[in-house]
Amino acid sequence: MRRRDNDQESTGERPTWLPWLTGVLTDKGYDLSSSRSGGRSQLAQDTGISAGIISRLLAGEPVSYETLLSLSRGTGIPLAELLIRTEKAAERDFSLSGPESGQIAVSSGKRLTPEEVAEAAGVPEDDRPWFTTMVRRMRRGDTGDGSSSAGGAAAEG
Does the model's pTM come out above 0.70? Predict the structure, then answer.
């Protein structure tokens, strides 16, 4: 069953989430200053969302969950944040991770870089080069003792 967006009435007022979203998209490199700037077309291409729906979204009109999911996947904006900001979900709906569980939520679906892991884990700045090197070695299966299947002396990269 497809979800419909008739649950929001158009009041003619600009939604409170729209400045946040346009700011995030601008920070990610999408020039949304005008319809001819190319940013909307690039956003449509990156997300797989039609240009018409992108226009509706940037006009503050309601869009479907599927549109927000595609926007999240194509831009890396956490889906939970999109859903909460556009009032399609409440913050309490995402309470499975966070400080009380001791875990960090990764809602974008993309794999974290070793640098992002180090930052999220609170690794001190002086230890981060060592930490990221070790994470990269573990991902490759290189134990650093020369016993890896990759030959043990593979160059860092």
Answer: no
